[in-house]
Design the sequence.
């Protein structure tokens, strides 16, 4: 039964759930100056259809670069030393929208809920939104995983991003895979080009516009442990969860700025809510 005032109800104007101008703003001028002083201190190459872990100390910069060919990366972040504080894709989406770029922040889970990282450079920022509603670096997808693959196609595929991240974390933490798996979480889809179809609202992907040399760079607001998987979908133009797509490595580099360039910058404190919940 369509009510008489259906059109009037549909015509109500939306309001932004979380006006981000109310949030503490990152000092982008400071970060821009600091990134002129960078010195590389570490690098890790993530092999195709595999993942690797890396550490980024607070106050350092991390760059994820496409090398050799178009490739999508699935990124997990944890607070170094506390796997319970981890990247909160859903809240980042609620605050910054479906895709992130320079100036957006990557938020951590409750109860700490603070910026873990601030994006400081994105060579794909020119892409914007295409005519399909697609954009780059999404926080809407979860990660390719063998469970969904089993439901949709059957079989046992072991190189989905979920499994790659699980193996990498288990090896890094020297823990069994069963213990590592629950720490793997919804990702930032680095370089992935995605959106929702306008008619059915379904999650779609298309060939990533990334080319070798493109990078996404972020500033670590707290001590970070990262995990990055080079998705078996390659540029995600056709399929994932199989070995049929062309896949390429990804380069992760960690840079130290001149400490003087950070001025009075301080690592953000955990969230100010008491955790009382009215009890
Ligand atoms: Zn994947």
Sequence:
């Amino acid at each position: 039964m369509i009510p008489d005032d259906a059109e009037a109800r549909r015509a109500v104007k939306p309001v932004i759930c979380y006006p981000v101008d109310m949030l503490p703003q990152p000092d982008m001028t400071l970060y821009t100056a600091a990134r002129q002083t960078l010195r590389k201190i570490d690098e890790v190459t993530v092999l195709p259809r595999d993942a690797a872990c890396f550490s980024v100390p607070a106050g350092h910069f991390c760059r994820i670069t496409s090398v050799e060919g178009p490739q999508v990366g699935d990124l997990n972040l944890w607070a170094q030393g506390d796997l319970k504080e981890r990247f909160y894709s859903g809240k980042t989406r609620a605050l910054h929208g479906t895709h992130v770029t320079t100036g957006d922040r990557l938020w951590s889970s409750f109860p700490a809920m603070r910026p873990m990282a601030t994006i400081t450079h994105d060579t794909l920022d020119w892409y914007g939104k295409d005519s399909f509603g697609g954009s780059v670096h999404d926080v809407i997808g979860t990660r390719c995983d063998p469970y969904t693959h089993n439901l949709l196609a059957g079989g046992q595929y072991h190189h989905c991003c979920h499994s790659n991240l699980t193996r990498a974390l288990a090896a890094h933490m020297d823990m069994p895979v069963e213990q590592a798996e629950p720490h793997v979480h919804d990702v930032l889809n680095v370089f992935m080009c995605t959106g929702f179809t306008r008619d059915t609202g379904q999650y779609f992907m298309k060939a990533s516009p990334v080319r070798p040399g493109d990078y996404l760079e972020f500033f670590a607001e707290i001590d970070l442990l990262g995990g990055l998987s080079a998705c078996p979908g390659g540029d995600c133009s056709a399929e994932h969860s199989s070995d049929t797509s062309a896949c390429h490595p990804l380069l992760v580099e960690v840079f130290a700025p001149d400490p003087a360039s950070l001025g009075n910058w301080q690592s953000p404190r955990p969230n100010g809510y008491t955790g009382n919940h009215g009890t």
